[in-house]
Amino acid sequence: EDEHHHDKDPHIWLDPTLAMKQAEKIKNALVELQPDHKQEFEKNFAALQTKFTDLDDQFKAAVANAKTKDILVSHAAYGYWEQRYGLKQIAIAGISASDEPSQKQLADITKTVKEHNLQYILFETFSTPKVASVIQKETGTKILRLNHLATISEDDAKSNKD
């Protein structure tokens, strides 16, 4: 179930193309505020732009080779992936970092995976590993860990991964 109640999907940073546009606006604002550092801002943005372009290309290649366009997620945060890459998110309760699924929810998750012939399940970085293992064992799917950057660990913050 979607835990956000917005008119627009707030997860815009998950689309590399839109994130690149945001980064460019930030770069332009920084250049305006600190013109002495324009060259540094431009250089850093160019490097980031390359990373976003590469990421977009990787997404396109992965989706082009996928047997199904359905993805199972803990909440509907991937609307921009649906728009950009043609994926269809199936949001299901019980697989988020904050939820521990009931037996019925585990059965429902397993049923959904089988009905949609899913090969992979996306789990948030901080979701419960035990839940992922149970679902993987029941369905034969591969588990992919996804850090959507909405939450980070203390270690990530200390090592500037935020």
UniProtKB/TrEMBL annotation:
Pfam families named in the record: ZnuA (PF01297)
Gene Ontology terms: biological process: metal ion transport
InterPro entries in alphabetical order: Bact_metal-bind_prot9 (IPR050492), ZnuA-like (IPR006127)
Gene Ontology MF terms in the entry: metal ion binding
Listed name of the protein: Adhesin
